[in-house]
Here is the input.
Amino acid sequence: MAKRQYGQFCGLAHAADLVGERWTLLIVRDLLVGAKRFTDLRRGLPRIPTNVLSSRLKQLEGAGVIQRRVLPRPDGSVVYELTDYGNELEAIVLALGRWGARTMGEPGPEDIVTPDSLVMAMRSTFRREAALGLQASYELRVGDVVVHLRIDHGELKVAAGAQADADLVIEAGPAIRSLLAAELTPAEAVESGSVRVTGDTALLDRFAEVFRI
Amino acid sequence: MAKRQYGQFCGLAHAADLVGERWTLLIVRDLLVGAKRFTDLRRGLPRIPTNVLSSRLKQLEGAGVIQRRVLPRPDGSVVYELTDYGNELEAIVLALGRWGARTMGEPGPEDIVTPDSLVMAMRSTFRREAALGLQASYELRVGDVVVHLRIDHGELKVAAGAQADADLVIEAGPAIRSLLAAELTPAEAVESGSVRVTGDTALLDRFAEVFRI
DNA sequence: CTGGATCCCTCACGATACTG
DNA sequence: CAGTATCGTGAGGGATCCAG
Here is the structure.
């Protein structure tokens, strides 16, 4: 073996060995949303070379962070899912995502938003204490990515896809970041047209309180 | 420019751009202990090539994570220190270090312990709630690295170097990890000789309660 | 002595093609 | 669909050199 190593007996150095390589944390991010097949991971990470994805999955499996599971017949395909140990990265991934979001700036022309990244972004910006009195469902569209959120007295459930009868549908572009960062009030966002809403429009204010970078 | 990028408009992807490269988080770890000169960083990261260190410092400075500061005369040398934004990585670095420490295993023959890594390891394993009733000072020696700790009713201060009149001096090798992980009781550790103590030996039990992976 | 810059070599990464 | 094989490129590793 004798791979590259930091040469330090240190928890952080070991963590960097396990999940510090390029692409690895983004793979973990997508798996935090749910178990996925190889092709699903590719779809969520369009720029990752397949050999790198393959290699990372092996490393993560060897490190006990994820496990391969063969789905029951007649499907028989393979999914990758986080182990308990891997799942404990959740708080760290959310915190790092929040930290990074604060200096994100505008997206480049090549930058995309994936369903999983949006799901995790909403989970990372959710402020439980601001949602205690709220019960509502939202559908959020950023570009052509759609997720739905259900808030129930301090508990959040987010998933990809539409929501049949959401209380409020929010449609936005990258400006969604300015709204979450409170650089833009909900009123300004709607007025400027960078955010469009359909449904119980009063719920947009609550949305902007509950989710905050 | 046009450097490698993930192509995603996502806080985590951006964080990975800022601090996700090899060595970067270890540099941040050492700077979390205090401002440092180029040569101090080299000493704490013996395996880092100087060009990589130089390059990382530039990137981190450009990203607003650290800043260069020229010390007042007559010294006139340069130190690198975290910005406020960089300092907010502390909780993340501590959590990641804790996560990694759980699967660290035994150190290889090449693995070293540095003063800064030990300081951060102690900070990351400190459990405030277990230290509320305690007031004590320790000197901890792991290999030839020495740090001292002062616990004052739920507050911890750690720094490199010896402590003149510590209540308890703890001397250990890599077995310190087993003690912190509670794979070894303090009594067993002393009995087997893997941990040696000098001073108020009853304080070793408190130590093992207060610091826990 | 500090604070790097430069060189060269290697290997991991990235792009693409291909296979069971 | 789920990867492996191949191959070019650039980042990392290591040694050395240089300016203040």
About this structure: The domain at 115-210 of chain B is CATH 3.30.1050.10 (Nonspecific Lipid-transfer Protein; Chain A). Strands of chain B lie at 66-70, 78-82, 135-142, 145-152, 155-160, 168-172, 195-199.
